Amino acid sequence: MLTQPVTVVPLPAPADTVTTKRQPAWPDRLWLLPVLVTAVLGLWRASSIDLWWDELSTIDIARRPFSGIIATAGNVDAVHTVYYLFMHVWIILFGASPTSVRLPSVIAMCGATACTAVIAEKLFDKRIGLTAAMIFALIPGVARYAEEARSYGFVVLGASAAFVLLLRALEQPSSRRWKIYGAVLALTGALNLIALMAVAGHAVAVLMKARAESDDRATRRRGYLKPFALAVGAAVLIDLPVIILGAFEADSQLGDLSRATVSDLPSMWKDIGNSAPFSLLVLLALPLLLAHRKRGPELTILVSATFPVVALWFVSLFGVGFDSFARYLLFVLPVWAIAIAVAVDRLWPKRKAALIAVILVTAIAVTYDQLQIHGHLSHFKYDYPGASVLPEDYSAAAAIIHANYKAGDAGTFGQSVHIELGVNEYLPADEQLSDIFTQRTDAQENSLTPAYCTSTEACVDKAPDRVWMLETGFVAPYAVERADWALALMLQYRTVQVWHVWGVTVTLLERR
Fold first, then answer.
1. What pLDDT, on the 0 to 100 scale, is given for residue 384?
2. Entry pTM
3. How many other CB atoms are there within 10 angstroms of residue 237's CB atom?
4. Is 90 exceeded by the pLDDT of residue 486?
5. According to a count of CB atoms within 10 Å of the terminal CB, is the N or C end of the chain lower?
């Protein structure tokens, strides 16, 4: 019996089981591009830019034992203690070369770039997230403080990570998420107490979320307001020792600084990102956020971008004086970048070309500033394009000493701890110059300044036959040396040769 062949026709799959071709993964990984840009700009010339005062203080204190770092915190720089403890371990593991001590800040800023993308994506969408992260990576202030051996990069990372954790807690509230948020907020405050002002923007995000989720006041309080208040309160409580120590040390560290004036606000604004053109882009973007102030995400970014700046300026008008404190506000840069990206999207909704254009405009606008902050002595422009100090070329001075060094040589530094630290940092270990007028070093004093000899004549009598005298500025020998020190040296030593490098006068003295 013949049978007809049976053709099996597959039934169409149900709608929920239809599979689509997998999209390439690279679009989701585009956030790696701004992270790479941050790393490249942060490492650019990191080995050749001279260490400056603050970085030298970091290395000096971080080299002390844990007990010495804690003891120093009781006298000065308590607000940087957590960072010094971390750098103590880092230097043991990786050394204290300029690149090595700056690398942690580069890594931290790369993390902050990724957090910027996440914040913008959670509040808006992926396109704005990528745009904001790229803008953030191009900010000169990001590169400047990515390659500084100081805690600023970690503060930016901590503040942006805390923002991410807050948004996660608002998405799916849980005790664990609120605790992690509070812990990161506390760590950020321990690195820089001023960064706790970022909580103002966080509070707006919480209020907007609570308002959108429920009309019941009790539900809002239990679900969002109470856990947020507990997390912030716990963070402040954890940071209380740093707050107390910082308050006691404020007079010695900030007491001689002048208070702010009304005109300082615009000046400070342009200094925060180390670029006047970039600060102008932010100012142009903010009104567009203000026009959408009834929308929660826009209002959150608006408050986060402006409140810390205005609040610190206002405090400085009537309270503790701050001089060039723009670098303490670097944690607002992620939300500044997001503000620009959002403003452009509001002008030209959903247009990729507009977002790409604003990235290119930002890159062109900040090119000159990027070149300025990557110069050999650029770190002395600590609040570029604002105030700076006279640069001191420690590596050049050290090169002169190294070329003419003889075993047993010592030095005198005109009471400039920075010159002593800087020159010795660039000298080989077996050519370190000890100060002939120092009785106890700054490390022995658990401070940033040493204790000097009480008897000038006795110190000079015990000094070696050759002494290197290093003084600040392009000056004649002995011009800035202490009067009694200069007299004793002139009586017992003769000048062999004088060299001038940028910001430092180097004089070789030989006993008569």
1. 92
2. 0.91
3. 12
4. yes
5. N
